[in-house]
Design brief:
single chain; alpha/beta; 5-stranded mixed β-sheet; 10 strands; globular
Amino acid sequence: MTVRAVVLADTHLRPGAGGGGLLGRLPEPARQALTRADVVLHAGDIVTAHLLHELSAIAPVLAVRGNNDGDPSLSHVPEVRLEVLAGVRVGMIHGSGARAGREARLRRLFPDAGVVVFGHSHIPWNAEGLDGQLLFNPGSPTQRRAQPHQTIGVLDLDEGRVLSHEIVIVGP
């Protein structure tokens, strides 16, 4: 059975004015993609457990803590994790370190993972690392920084294979 993972990172959504919940502050295309998720992967800089709670009303959430996740409500979230989704080993970490040496560093950290999801840089990344390992950073749906667009990622997994891996533009 195919599993669709919607991949987020660096959402940086803080509770506050506006009402309607934190998900309401994501771009509409990101919210639409989430409605089709079998699982949500969040690669850190969640900021508050309220977001994880809202996301979990849509689909199961697997997350790692980022450098902006010091809120005690996130203390239960691991910094590194390895999960098996549809037979694919998926490693998750917030920061992957400098661009130079990234492929080897992530292969050492997750030697058996077919996919490594990371965040931190806000730079979308969808490329093969060492030995066919997929390195996947969804960028950010809320803070594009120097990137041309706000983005998320979508992974379709089935029977131990990555069927598709896409960076999706969700905002300007």
